[in-house]
Each structure stands twice: as C-alpha cells, then as structure tokens.
Amino acid sequence: MIARQEMEQTVERITETGMRDDVRRDIEAELASESIKLRVTDLDFYYGRFRALKGINLAIPTNRVTALIGPSGCGKSTLIRVFNRMYDLVPGARVRGSARLDGDEVTGRGVDVVMLRRRVGMVFQRPNPFPMSIYDNVAYGPRLEGAPRDLDGVVERSLRSAALWDEVKDRLKDSALALSGGQQQRLVIARVLAVEPEVILMDEPASALDPISTLKIEDLMTDLKSRYTIAIVTHNMQQAGRVSDYTAFMNMSSERHGEVVEFGRTAEIFNRPRDPRTEAYITGRFG
Ligand SMILES: Nc1ncnc2c1ncn2[C@@H]1O[C@H](COP(=O)(O)OP(=O)(O)OP(=O)(O)O)[C@@H](O)[C@H]1O
Ligand SMILES: [Mg+2]
Asked: Ligand 1: which of 45, 68, 74 to mutate, judged by most atoms within 8 Å of the beta carbon?
C-alpha cells in the first residue's frame, strides 16, 4: 500500500513544473556562503514565438565550476549563451527578466557587448581556432585591444595556463589548424585566457575529444577555477561529477519550455537528488 502511495506521489511530482519550493530554500541557504558572479532572475527566453526558457532562477558562484546538465533541447546552450549575449546574432531571439554579472545587467540595450564578451569568454563544442598561426590565435584578443608591450609574455602565459605550452613552444608560427582536436581546444582556451576574462563559459568543450584530451580539459578547469568562474554544459555525468562544485539540472516542461529543476552542490545532486525528475535523469531513466 505504502509503496503504491509513494509511487503515485512521485508520479504526481514528476508532472510538476519548475523548482520545488523546499529545493529552492535549501539552495538559497547553501549559497549564502558564496559570492555570486552571475545571477539570473525570472528569466524567459524566446526564439520568435517559441519560449525556450521559462522562469529561470540561477546563481553561479565566483571561482567555482558550475555544471549545467539535462536532456537534449532543454535549453542549456540557450541559457549559457545569455551570459555573453551570443543570442544577439540570432534573428527573433529575445530575453525577458534579468541576468546580472557582478550586479550589472547583461541583457539591456545599453550594454557594451564587446566589453561584456571580454569579461565573459566562451569555448564551444567544436574547437574553432582561427586560420592563422598558433601565436596569432592567442595574440588576437590582446592585439585588438592595442597590443600590450609584452605580447610574447602574454602568449606564453596563456598557453601555459591552458596546459599547451610544452607541446607548441617550438612551433608557434605553425598553423593552428595543424594541431590535433584536443590541442586546438586548449588553444581556444588559451585565446580566451589571453584577454583575462572573469567568466569562462564552456558548451560541451570535450565532447569531440578523445579520453586523454578530455581529462586534460577537465584538469585544466580545476586549475583555472582559482582565478575564473566557470560554467560548463555537459552530457557526461562522470565529467560533471569530476569537475564541478555545483550542478544545475535542467528539464523541459510539458510545453517544452526549459526550466531549472534542481540546483545544488554536485555531490548532493548526484548522491541525494531532492526532486524525482533529477533522480530519473541522473540514473539514466530518461533524457
Ligand atoms: N536558433 C534557434 N532558433 C530557434 N529555436 C532554437 C534555436 N536554437 C535553439 N532552439 C530551440 O531551443 C530549444 C533549446 O535549445 P538548446 O540548443 O538551448 O538546447 P540544449 O539543452 O543545449 O540541447 P543539446 O543538449 O542538444 O545541445 C530547443 O527546442 C531548440 O530547438
Ligand atoms: Mg546545447
């Protein structure tokens, strides 16, 4: 009897939308000890008439790695791209609600998008080095800003931080396109680091890489988080478990709007999910 009652309650809860109030209260208490780099409040996102994100509330803590997980199409990429206004390039895309970086609104009309993208760098699923030399890729951002006096030093430091220096130091003038996929992805990270951003967004940065390169990128994230705030989208649950301090589980409502269902310390989300929808996803029962 009890089992049956429990099951019915679970099913009832699975048809709920958004984040449960008790889960929300817990995470607010947890985050009280963190400084918050990015804060999203009641955010909706539309592609034309389609509402891809609904009522998103999320706080991304400073100098932590936050993972965004959830089934395909639930809006992870859409959400992460809000933070550096990548959606500006998409016709018909529009945002309602608030997303703030250190308290500064990023979605408003008056925002200096070039400056915003300096502060919030992005790494995509497919490595996208520019068709130029390794050196010129890393020097690209600093040169745009008026080359610093010690450009060689900036390039070296960025490549070292991206754990690529030893592999490329003798061929900096070679084409970046001659590097392997894993090296290209670290080069792209070096290019992002060269402009000294505050936040690094990574949208499935290792999904096109072999296991060794994947581990290198993961180690890199752990090294970088003392200086940067990192948000990573991943479909790889082990990866989320290994690299992230916090995890947001996103899901689609029955109307296909993307929502944040649960957010918390990664160990809690994986070992003691509060919401049955989270548990179903991480145990592989849907998505
Ligand atoms: N440029 C676009 N125009 C119209 N709809 C879009 C556009 N980009 C994404 N969408 C829609 O928005 C929803 C969320 O897409 P998004 O790419 O953010 O999902 P995702 O969680 O990153 O998925 P995946 O895990 O497959 O990468 C989907 O229904 C998708 O079809
Ligand atoms: Mg995506």
From this structure: 74
- Interhelix angle 134-144/181-193, rounded to 10 degrees, is 20
Q: What is the dihedral of CA 185, 187, 191, 196, to 10 degrees?
A: 90
Residue 145: per-residue pLDDT: 86
Detail the DSSP E strand segments found in 77-220. 93-101, 104-105, 120-123, 199-203
Q: Ligand 1 pocket test: pick from 43, 44, 47 the residue with the most ligand atoms within 8 Å of its Cβ.
A: 47
Write out the CATH class of domain 2-130+182-282: alpha beta
Q: Please tell me the predicted confidence (pLDDT) of residue 286.
A: 62
pLDDT 10s digits, 154-174: 999 999 999 999 999 999 999
Per-residue model confidence (pLDDT) at position 10? 52
Residue 246 has pLDDT above 90, yes or no: yes
Find the 87 Cα to ligand 2 centroid distance in Å. 13
